[in-house]
Design goal:
Blueprint: H1 2-23, E1 26-33, H2 39-52, H3 60-63, E2 67-73, E3 81-82, H4 85-93, E4 107-115, H5 119-125, E5 128-136, H6 139-143, H7 152-164, H8 170-177, H9 187-206, H10 245-267, E6 274-279, H11 281-287, H12 289-305, H13 312-318, E7 325-330, H14 341-358, E8 365-370, E9 378-382, E10 385-391, E11 398-401, H15 411-414, H16 428-431, H17 452-460
Parallel strand pairs: 1-5, 1-6, 3-4, 6-7, 7-8
Antiparallel strand pairs: 2-4, 4-5, 9-10, 10-11
Helix pairs in contact: 1-13, 2-4, 8-9, 11-12, 12-14
The chain binds guanosine-5'-diphosphate.
Guanosine-5'-diphosphate is lined by residues 33, 35-41, 99, 102-103, 331-332, 334-335, 372-374, 376, 433-434.
Length: 465
Protein backbone atom coordinates (compact mmCIF):
# COMPACT_ATOMS: atom_id res chain seq x y z
CA UNK A 1 0.00 0.00 0.00
CA UNK A 2 2.82 2.33 0.90
CA UNK A 3 4.25 2.03 -2.60
CA UNK A 4 0.93 2.77 -4.24
CA UNK A 5 0.15 5.80 -2.05
CA UNK A 6 3.68 6.97 -2.52
CA UNK A 7 3.39 6.45 -6.28
CA UNK A 8 0.26 8.57 -6.42
CA UNK A 9 1.95 11.27 -4.34
CA UNK A 10 4.80 11.37 -6.74
CA UNK A 11 2.64 11.43 -9.82
CA UNK A 12 0.90 14.55 -8.48
CA UNK A 13 4.32 16.04 -7.83
CA UNK A 14 5.32 14.99 -11.36
CA UNK A 15 2.26 16.71 -12.78
CA UNK A 16 3.07 19.99 -11.03
CA UNK A 17 6.62 19.73 -12.26
CA UNK A 18 5.44 19.27 -15.81
CA UNK A 19 3.16 22.34 -15.53
CA UNK A 20 6.20 24.47 -14.61
CA UNK A 21 8.07 22.35 -17.15
CA UNK A 22 6.06 23.91 -19.99
CA UNK A 23 7.72 27.20 -19.24
CA UNK A 24 11.10 25.99 -18.09
CA UNK A 25 11.82 22.50 -19.37
CA UNK A 26 14.09 20.36 -17.24
CA UNK A 27 16.33 17.49 -18.29
CA UNK A 28 17.49 15.19 -15.49
CA UNK A 29 20.73 13.63 -16.64
CA UNK A 30 22.00 10.69 -14.59
CA UNK A 31 25.76 10.11 -14.60
CA UNK A 32 26.87 6.75 -13.30
CA UNK A 33 29.61 4.14 -13.57
CA UNK A 34 31.58 2.05 -11.13
CA UNK A 35 34.03 3.74 -8.80
CA UNK A 36 36.99 5.33 -10.69
CA UNK A 37 35.19 5.11 -14.05
CA UNK A 38 35.50 8.88 -14.41
CA UNK A 39 32.16 10.39 -13.27
CA UNK A 40 33.61 13.33 -11.37
CA UNK A 41 35.99 14.27 -14.17
CA UNK A 42 33.19 13.86 -16.74
CA UNK A 43 30.71 16.14 -14.97
CA UNK A 44 33.33 18.78 -14.23
CA UNK A 45 34.51 18.91 -17.82
CA UNK A 46 31.00 18.72 -19.29
CA UNK A 47 29.77 21.65 -17.22
CA UNK A 48 32.89 23.76 -17.90
CA UNK A 49 32.62 23.04 -21.61
CA UNK A 50 28.90 23.82 -21.70
CA UNK A 51 29.52 27.12 -20.00
CA UNK A 52 32.15 28.13 -22.54
CA UNK A 53 31.35 25.98 -25.64
CA UNK A 54 34.46 26.81 -27.67
CA UNK A 55 35.30 23.10 -27.76
CA UNK A 56 31.75 21.83 -28.29
CA UNK A 57 31.51 21.90 -32.11
CA UNK A 58 29.63 18.58 -32.35
CA UNK A 59 26.88 19.79 -30.05
CA UNK A 60 24.66 21.41 -32.65
CA UNK A 61 23.01 23.89 -30.31
CA UNK A 62 26.50 25.12 -29.43
CA UNK A 63 27.89 25.37 -32.97
CA UNK A 64 24.78 27.13 -34.31
CA UNK A 65 24.84 29.59 -31.44
CA UNK A 66 21.38 28.49 -30.22
CA UNK A 67 22.77 28.28 -26.68
CA UNK A 68 23.18 31.92 -25.73
CA UNK A 69 24.41 31.52 -22.17
CA UNK A 70 24.84 28.77 -19.61
CA UNK A 71 25.10 29.40 -15.89
CA UNK A 72 24.90 27.52 -12.60
CA UNK A 73 21.66 27.80 -10.74
CA UNK A 74 20.56 26.56 -7.29
CA UNK A 75 19.54 22.90 -7.62
CA UNK A 76 15.92 21.84 -7.11
CA UNK A 77 16.59 19.21 -4.41
CA UNK A 78 17.54 20.63 -1.04
CA UNK A 79 18.55 17.37 0.59
CA UNK A 80 21.03 16.07 -2.00
CA UNK A 81 24.67 17.18 -1.76
CA UNK A 82 25.66 19.74 -4.38
CA UNK A 83 28.27 18.48 -6.86
CA UNK A 84 31.37 20.43 -5.90
CA UNK A 85 32.01 21.79 -9.38
CA UNK A 86 34.15 24.79 -8.44
CA UNK A 87 36.74 22.85 -6.39
CA UNK A 88 36.88 20.01 -8.92
CA UNK A 89 37.50 22.48 -11.75
CA UNK A 90 40.12 24.31 -9.68
CA UNK A 91 41.89 20.96 -9.12
CA UNK A 92 41.95 20.23 -12.85
CA UNK A 93 42.89 23.66 -14.10
CA UNK A 94 45.18 24.97 -11.33
CA UNK A 95 48.86 25.80 -11.72
CA UNK A 96 49.61 22.28 -10.50
CA UNK A 97 46.72 20.33 -11.96
CA UNK A 98 45.49 17.26 -10.11
CA UNK A 99 42.59 14.85 -10.52
CA UNK A 100 39.64 15.75 -8.28
CA UNK A 101 38.32 13.54 -5.47
CA UNK A 102 36.06 10.81 -6.80
CA UNK A 103 32.34 10.25 -6.34
CA UNK A 104 31.49 8.74 -2.94
CA UNK A 105 27.76 9.31 -2.86
CA UNK A 106 24.92 10.95 -4.77
CA UNK A 107 25.22 14.63 -5.68
CA UNK A 108 23.54 17.07 -8.00
CA UNK A 109 24.21 20.23 -9.99
CA UNK A 110 21.85 22.43 -12.00
CA UNK A 111 23.17 24.11 -15.13
CA UNK A 112 20.66 26.43 -16.79
CA UNK A 113 20.94 27.08 -20.51
CA UNK A 114 19.38 30.03 -22.27
CA UNK A 115 18.46 28.66 -25.69
CA UNK A 116 17.05 30.33 -28.80
CA UNK A 117 14.85 27.70 -30.48
CA UNK A 118 15.18 27.52 -34.26
CA UNK A 119 12.43 27.94 -36.90
CA UNK A 120 9.17 29.76 -36.81
CA UNK A 121 8.29 28.68 -33.29
CA UNK A 122 11.55 30.09 -32.06
CA UNK A 123 10.99 33.43 -33.78
CA UNK A 124 7.61 33.77 -32.12
CA UNK A 125 8.50 32.43 -28.70
CA UNK A 126 11.97 33.95 -28.25
CA UNK A 127 14.64 32.32 -26.08
CA UNK A 128 13.74 29.73 -23.45
CA UNK A 129 15.56 28.43 -20.38
CA UNK A 130 16.33 24.74 -20.20
CA UNK A 131 17.52 23.39 -16.85
CA UNK A 132 20.00 20.54 -16.97
CA UNK A 133 19.96 18.74 -13.61
CA UNK A 134 22.99 16.49 -13.48
CA UNK A 135 22.72 13.68 -10.94
CA UNK A 136 25.95 11.84 -10.09
CA UNK A 137 25.58 8.46 -8.36
CA UNK A 138 27.77 5.38 -7.89
CA UNK A 139 27.14 2.56 -10.37
CA UNK A 140 27.55 0.12 -7.49
CA UNK A 141 24.14 1.28 -6.25
CA UNK A 142 22.54 0.40 -9.57
CA UNK A 143 23.80 -3.16 -9.47
CA UNK A 144 22.05 -3.57 -6.12
CA UNK A 145 18.80 -3.76 -8.06
CA UNK A 146 19.67 -7.41 -8.69
CA UNK A 147 19.24 -8.03 -4.95
CA UNK A 148 15.59 -6.98 -4.94
CA UNK A 149 14.27 -10.26 -6.24
CA UNK A 150 16.80 -12.47 -4.50
CA UNK A 151 16.36 -13.94 -1.04
CA UNK A 152 19.25 -13.93 1.40
CA UNK A 153 19.71 -17.67 0.83
CA UNK A 154 19.90 -17.23 -2.95
CA UNK A 155 22.27 -14.26 -2.78
CA UNK A 156 24.51 -16.12 -0.30
CA UNK A 157 24.67 -19.24 -2.46
CA UNK A 158 25.59 -17.28 -5.61
CA UNK A 159 28.13 -15.08 -3.88
CA UNK A 160 29.84 -17.99 -2.12
CA UNK A 161 30.00 -20.00 -5.36
CA UNK A 162 31.81 -17.09 -7.05
CA UNK A 163 34.14 -16.61 -4.08
CA UNK A 164 35.08 -20.30 -4.28
CA UNK A 165 36.13 -19.85 -7.90
CA UNK A 166 38.45 -16.94 -7.08
CA UNK A 167 41.73 -16.70 -5.28
CA UNK A 168 40.62 -13.51 -3.55
CA UNK A 169 37.79 -15.50 -1.92
CA UNK A 170 40.12 -17.75 0.08
CA UNK A 171 40.44 -15.49 3.14
CA UNK A 172 36.71 -14.98 3.55
CA UNK A 173 35.97 -18.68 3.08
CA UNK A 174 38.62 -19.49 5.68
CA UNK A 175 36.97 -17.03 8.10
CA UNK A 176 33.61 -18.71 7.44
CA UNK A 177 35.13 -22.11 8.14
CA UNK A 178 35.44 -21.39 11.88
CA UNK A 179 31.94 -19.92 12.27
CA UNK A 180 28.73 -21.81 12.97
CA UNK A 181 25.93 -19.96 11.15
CA UNK A 182 23.27 -21.66 13.28
CA UNK A 183 24.87 -20.48 16.55
CA UNK A 184 23.44 -17.54 18.46
CA UNK A 185 24.35 -14.14 16.99
CA UNK A 186 27.51 -12.70 18.44
CA UNK A 187 28.12 -9.11 17.34
CA UNK A 188 31.96 -9.19 17.20
CA UNK A 189 31.74 -12.29 14.98
CA UNK A 190 29.20 -10.54 12.75
CA UNK A 191 31.46 -7.52 12.46
CA UNK A 192 34.50 -9.63 11.68
CA UNK A 193 32.69 -11.52 8.94
CA UNK A 194 31.34 -8.29 7.45
CA UNK A 195 34.84 -6.78 7.49
CA UNK A 196 36.36 -9.86 5.84
CA UNK A 197 33.63 -9.93 3.23
CA UNK A 198 34.09 -6.19 2.52
CA UNK A 199 37.83 -6.79 2.07
CA UNK A 200 36.96 -9.52 -0.44
CA UNK A 201 34.69 -7.11 -2.37
CA UNK A 202 37.46 -4.51 -2.48
CA UNK A 203 39.92 -7.14 -3.69
CA UNK A 204 37.72 -8.31 -6.57
CA UNK A 205 36.96 -4.68 -7.50
CA UNK A 206 40.70 -4.03 -7.73
CA UNK A 207 41.02 -7.04 -10.02
CA UNK A 208 38.50 -5.44 -12.38
CA UNK A 209 35.36 -7.38 -11.40
CA UNK A 210 32.08 -5.54 -11.09
CA UNK A 211 29.77 -8.08 -9.42
CA UNK A 212 30.37 -6.44 -6.06
CA UNK A 213 27.04 -6.46 -4.24
CA UNK A 214 25.97 -5.05 -1.85
CA UNK A 215 27.23 -1.84 -3.43
CA UNK A 216 27.21 0.19 -0.20
CA UNK A 217 29.80 -2.11 1.33
CA UNK A 218 32.28 -0.42 -1.01
CA UNK A 219 30.93 3.13 -0.64
CA UNK A 220 29.21 3.16 2.77
CA UNK A 221 28.94 6.94 3.34
CA UNK A 222 26.98 7.71 6.51
CA UNK A 223 25.86 4.06 6.82
CA UNK A 224 29.36 2.94 7.78
CA UNK A 225 29.24 0.60 10.80
CA UNK A 226 25.44 0.38 10.86
CA UNK A 227 23.66 -3.01 11.09
CA UNK A 228 22.40 -2.77 7.47
CA UNK A 229 26.05 -3.02 6.42
CA UNK A 230 27.05 -5.61 9.02
CA UNK A 231 26.19 -8.89 7.36
CA UNK A 232 27.82 -11.26 4.88
CA UNK A 233 26.91 -14.38 2.89
CA UNK A 234 26.57 -17.61 4.89
CA UNK A 235 26.09 -21.22 3.80
CA UNK A 236 22.50 -22.47 3.96
CA UNK A 237 21.30 -23.72 7.35
CA UNK A 238 18.43 -26.19 7.79
CA UNK A 239 15.69 -24.41 9.74
CA UNK A 240 17.80 -21.68 11.36
CA UNK A 241 16.52 -20.76 14.82
CA UNK A 242 15.46 -17.29 15.87
CA UNK A 243 18.37 -15.24 17.13
CA UNK A 244 20.91 -17.25 15.15
CA UNK A 245 23.63 -15.59 13.10
CA UNK A 246 21.96 -16.82 9.90
CA UNK A 247 18.54 -15.41 10.80
CA UNK A 248 19.98 -12.06 11.86
CA UNK A 249 22.04 -11.75 8.69
CA UNK A 250 18.93 -12.57 6.68
CA UNK A 251 17.03 -9.84 8.53
CA UNK A 252 19.80 -7.28 7.92
CA UNK A 253 19.98 -8.23 4.24
CA UNK A 254 16.23 -7.60 3.94
CA UNK A 255 16.64 -4.28 5.79
CA UNK A 256 19.40 -3.32 3.34
CA UNK A 257 16.98 -3.95 0.48
CA UNK A 258 14.04 -2.08 1.94
CA UNK A 259 15.86 0.80 3.69
CA UNK A 260 18.82 1.41 1.38
CA UNK A 261 18.22 0.03 -2.11
CA UNK A 262 14.54 0.79 -2.43
CA UNK A 263 14.65 4.48 -1.35
CA UNK A 264 17.43 5.16 -3.86
CA UNK A 265 15.39 3.76 -6.75
CA UNK A 266 12.21 5.43 -5.55
CA UNK A 267 13.60 8.89 -4.80
CA UNK A 268 16.41 9.32 -7.32
CA UNK A 269 16.64 6.72 -10.04
CA UNK A 270 12.95 6.98 -10.92
CA UNK A 271 13.28 10.65 -11.89
CA UNK A 272 16.08 10.34 -14.45
CA UNK A 273 15.31 11.25 -18.11
CA UNK A 274 18.66 10.61 -19.78
CA UNK A 275 21.52 8.46 -18.58
CA UNK A 276 25.22 8.13 -19.28
CA UNK A 277 27.01 5.03 -17.99
CA UNK A 278 30.78 5.50 -17.88
CA UNK A 279 32.80 2.34 -18.26
CA UNK A 280 36.51 1.79 -17.76
CA UNK A 281 36.58 -0.61 -20.70
CA UNK A 282 40.32 -0.21 -21.24
CA UNK A 283 40.95 -1.24 -17.62
CA UNK A 284 38.80 -4.37 -18.07
CA UNK A 285 40.45 -5.23 -21.39
CA UNK A 286 43.84 -4.91 -19.75
CA UNK A 287 42.74 -7.06 -16.78
CA UNK A 288 41.81 -9.92 -19.14
CA UNK A 289 38.90 -12.05 -20.36
CA UNK A 290 37.28 -12.62 -16.95
CA UNK A 291 37.03 -8.90 -16.27
CA UNK A 292 35.64 -8.25 -19.78
CA UNK A 293 33.08 -11.00 -19.30
CA UNK A 294 32.16 -9.48 -15.98
CA UNK A 295 31.83 -6.03 -17.57
CA UNK A 296 29.53 -7.52 -20.16
CA UNK A 297 27.38 -9.05 -17.41
CA UNK A 298 27.24 -5.76 -15.50
CA UNK A 299 26.07 -4.00 -18.69
CA UNK A 300 23.26 -6.57 -18.92
CA UNK A 301 22.36 -5.90 -15.28
CA UNK A 302 22.45 -2.12 -15.80
CA UNK A 303 20.24 -2.31 -18.87
CA UNK A 304 17.93 -4.56 -16.85
CA UNK A 305 17.41 -1.70 -14.41
CA UNK A 306 16.21 0.48 -17.29
CA UNK A 307 13.76 -2.16 -18.49
CA UNK A 308 11.58 -2.60 -15.45
CA UNK A 309 9.04 -4.97 -17.06
CA UNK A 310 9.97 -8.17 -15.23
CA UNK A 311 10.68 -6.38 -11.96
CA UNK A 312 7.28 -5.75 -10.45
CA UNK A 313 8.21 -3.39 -7.65
CA UNK A 314 10.45 -1.26 -9.88
CA UNK A 315 7.69 -0.94 -12.50
CA UNK A 316 5.41 0.27 -9.74
CA UNK A 317 7.96 2.82 -8.56
CA UNK A 318 8.61 4.11 -12.07
CA UNK A 319 4.90 4.52 -12.66
CA UNK A 320 5.24 4.27 -16.44
CA UNK A 321 8.10 6.76 -16.60
CA UNK A 322 10.99 5.70 -18.80
CA UNK A 323 14.52 6.82 -19.39
CA UNK A 324 14.62 8.10 -22.96
CA UNK A 325 18.29 7.72 -23.84
CA UNK A 326 21.18 5.71 -22.44
CA UNK A 327 24.76 6.20 -23.53
CA UNK A 328 27.52 3.73 -22.61
CA UNK A 329 30.84 5.51 -22.89
CA UNK A 330 34.30 3.98 -22.59
CA UNK A 331 36.31 6.61 -20.72
CA UNK A 332 39.98 7.62 -20.72
CA UNK A 333 40.32 7.15 -24.49
CA UNK A 334 43.27 9.55 -24.32
CA UNK A 335 45.33 6.53 -23.18
CA UNK A 336 45.15 5.36 -26.79
CA UNK A 337 46.34 6.98 -30.00
CA UNK A 338 43.36 8.05 -32.10
CA UNK A 339 44.23 5.39 -34.68
CA UNK A 340 42.81 2.87 -32.16
CA UNK A 341 39.71 4.76 -31.07
CA UNK A 342 37.51 3.17 -33.72
CA UNK A 343 38.43 -0.27 -32.37
CA UNK A 344 37.59 0.73 -28.82
CA UNK A 345 34.25 2.12 -30.00
CA UNK A 346 33.58 -1.10 -31.94
CA UNK A 347 34.21 -3.11 -28.75
CA UNK A 348 31.78 -0.89 -26.81
CA UNK A 349 29.18 -1.23 -29.55
CA UNK A 350 29.54 -5.01 -29.56
CA UNK A 351 29.25 -5.10 -25.75
CA UNK A 352 26.12 -2.99 -25.93
CA UNK A 353 24.55 -5.14 -28.67
CA UNK A 354 25.27 -8.22 -26.62
CA UNK A 355 23.83 -6.65 -23.46
CA UNK A 356 20.69 -5.55 -25.33
CA UNK A 357 20.15 -9.06 -26.66
CA UNK A 358 20.62 -10.66 -23.30
CA UNK A 359 18.48 -8.16 -21.42
CA UNK A 360 15.91 -8.25 -24.25
CA UNK A 361 16.16 -4.51 -24.05
CA UNK A 362 13.86 -2.34 -26.12
CA UNK A 363 12.58 1.18 -25.66
CA UNK A 364 15.12 3.84 -24.85
CA UNK A 365 17.55 4.93 -27.55
CA UNK A 366 20.98 3.54 -26.71
CA UNK A 367 24.45 4.45 -27.94
CA UNK A 368 28.08 3.47 -27.37
CA UNK A 369 31.13 5.71 -27.68
CA UNK A 370 34.72 6.11 -26.56
CA UNK A 371 35.54 9.44 -24.95
CA UNK A 372 38.01 11.26 -22.72
CA UNK A 373 36.36 13.88 -20.55
CA UNK A 374 39.73 15.53 -20.01
CA UNK A 375 42.54 14.89 -22.38
CA UNK A 376 45.77 14.36 -20.42
CA UNK A 377 48.00 13.27 -23.31
CA UNK A 378 49.26 14.37 -26.72
CA UNK A 379 49.90 12.05 -29.65
CA UNK A 380 53.32 11.27 -31.01
CA UNK A 381 55.08 8.94 -33.41
CA UNK A 382 58.15 7.27 -31.91
CA UNK A 383 60.24 4.47 -33.40
CA UNK A 384 57.57 3.70 -35.94
CA UNK A 385 54.80 3.48 -33.31
CA UNK A 386 51.74 5.63 -32.66
CA UNK A 387 52.07 6.57 -29.00
CA UNK A 388 50.50 8.96 -26.48
CA UNK A 389 52.66 11.12 -24.28
CA UNK A 390 51.97 12.86 -20.98
CA UNK A 391 53.14 13.51 -17.42
CA UNK A 392 53.29 10.35 -15.33
CA UNK A 393 50.98 10.56 -12.31
CA UNK A 394 53.57 8.91 -10.02
CA UNK A 395 56.45 11.35 -10.52
CA UNK A 396 55.31 14.01 -13.01
CA UNK A 397 57.96 12.97 -15.55
CA UNK A 398 57.09 12.95 -19.26
CA UNK A 399 56.50 9.43 -20.55
CA UNK A 400 55.26 7.81 -23.75
CA UNK A 401 52.80 4.91 -23.80
CA UNK A 402 52.29 2.32 -26.47
CA UNK A 403 49.94 -0.22 -24.92
CA UNK A 404 49.79 -2.51 -27.95
CA UNK A 405 46.94 -2.86 -30.41
CA UNK A 406 43.33 -3.66 -29.73
CA UNK A 407 42.06 -6.42 -32.04
CA UNK A 408 40.08 -5.17 -35.02
CA UNK A 409 37.49 -7.90 -34.42
CA UNK A 410 35.61 -7.18 -31.15
CA UNK A 411 34.50 -10.80 -30.85
CA UNK A 412 38.12 -11.70 -30.08
CA UNK A 413 37.77 -9.78 -26.83
CA UNK A 414 34.13 -10.25 -26.00
CA UNK A 415 33.68 -13.88 -26.90
CA UNK A 416 36.92 -15.07 -25.30
CA UNK A 417 36.70 -17.89 -22.80
CA UNK A 418 36.54 -16.63 -19.22
CA UNK A 419 39.64 -18.48 -18.15
CA UNK A 420 41.72 -17.64 -21.23
CA UNK A 421 44.98 -16.07 -20.17
CA UNK A 422 45.36 -13.62 -23.04
CA UNK A 423 45.54 -9.91 -22.30
CA UNK A 424 45.29 -7.26 -24.95
CA UNK A 425 46.89 -4.16 -23.55
CA UNK A 426 50.40 -4.75 -22.31
CA UNK A 427 51.85 -4.50 -18.82
CA UNK A 428 52.75 -0.83 -19.30
CA UNK A 429 49.08 0.01 -19.45
CA UNK A 430 48.31 -0.67 -15.79
CA UNK A 431 51.20 1.39 -14.45
CA UNK A 432 50.72 4.27 -16.85
CA UNK A 433 48.39 6.73 -15.20
CA UNK A 434 48.75 10.24 -16.50
CA UNK A 435 48.45 13.40 -14.45
CA UNK A 436 46.13 16.00 -15.94
CA UNK A 437 48.10 18.21 -18.32
CA UNK A 438 48.89 21.78 -17.38
CA UNK A 439 46.31 23.78 -19.27
CA UNK A 440 46.75 27.23 -20.59
CA UNK A 441 43.06 28.06 -20.71
CA UNK A 442 41.50 31.42 -21.43
CA UNK A 443 39.19 32.56 -18.60
CA UNK A 444 36.07 30.38 -18.61
CA UNK A 445 37.42 28.01 -21.26
CA UNK A 446 36.66 24.31 -20.71
CA UNK A 447 39.37 21.63 -20.65
CA UNK A 448 40.32 19.77 -23.85
CA UNK A 449 38.51 16.46 -24.31
CA UNK A 450 37.77 13.73 -26.82
CA UNK A 451 34.19 13.49 -28.11
CA UNK A 452 32.59 15.02 -25.02
CA UNK A 453 30.62 17.22 -27.44
CA UNK A 454 29.31 14.17 -29.31
CA UNK A 455 28.27 12.58 -26.04
CA UNK A 456 26.40 15.79 -25.11
CA UNK A 457 24.71 15.87 -28.53
CA UNK A 458 23.48 12.31 -28.07
CA UNK A 459 22.27 12.92 -24.53
CA UNK A 460 20.63 16.34 -24.65
CA UNK A 461 21.03 17.77 -28.18
CA UNK A 462 17.39 17.17 -29.18
CA UNK A 463 16.12 19.15 -26.18
CA UNK A 464 18.12 22.24 -27.05
CA UNK A 465 16.60 22.92 -30.45
P1 LIG B 1 34.64 8.44 -10.30
O1 LIG B 1 34.99 7.54 -9.14
O2 LIG B 1 33.77 7.73 -11.27
O3 LIG B 1 34.09 9.78 -9.88
O4 LIG B 1 36.01 8.68 -11.09
P2 LIG B 1 36.87 10.02 -11.31
O5 LIG B 1 36.14 10.98 -12.18
O6 LIG B 1 37.34 10.53 -10.00
O7 LIG B 1 38.08 9.42 -12.14
C1 LIG B 1 38.94 8.46 -11.58
C2 LIG B 1 40.33 8.59 -12.15
O8 LIG B 1 40.32 8.20 -13.52
C3 LIG B 1 40.87 10.02 -12.15
O9 LIG B 1 41.46 10.33 -10.92
C4 LIG B 1 41.87 9.97 -13.29
O10 LIG B 1 43.08 9.38 -12.87
C5 LIG B 1 41.21 9.01 -14.27
N1 LIG B 1 40.44 9.71 -15.32
C6 LIG B 1 39.12 10.04 -15.31
N2 LIG B 1 38.76 10.63 -16.47
C7 LIG B 1 39.86 10.66 -17.25
C8 LIG B 1 40.15 11.14 -18.58
O11 LIG B 1 39.29 11.66 -19.30
N3 LIG B 1 41.44 10.96 -19.03
C9 LIG B 1 42.41 10.38 -18.27
N4 LIG B 1 43.64 10.25 -18.79
N5 LIG B 1 42.18 9.93 -17.02
C10 LIG B 1 40.94 10.06 -16.51
Amino acid sequence: LYDIVDGIGRSVEGATQSVTGIFEPTIRLGVTGLSRAGKTVFITSLVANLMDRARMGQLKAASTGAIQTAYLHPQPDDTIARFDFESHLADLTGAEPKWPHSTRTISELRLSLRVQPSGLVGMVSGPKTVHLDIVDYPGEWLLDLGLMDKSYAEWSAETLARAQARQAGAAYLAALGVVDPSAKLDEPTAQRLAADFTAYLHAIRAEGFSDCTPGRFLLPGELDGSPVLTFAPLPQVERPSRGSLWREFERRYEAYKSKVVKPFFRDHFSRIDRQIVLVDALGAIHAGPQAVDDLRQSMVDILGAFRPGPNAWLSQILFGKRVEKILFAATKADHLHHSQHARLTAIMEALLRDAKDRAEFAGAATGAMSIAAVRATVEDHLQGLDVVRGARLSDGKQAALYPGELPSDPSKIIGAARDAAEKWLDAEYSVMNFAPAKLDLAPGEGPPHIRLDRAAEFLIGDRLR
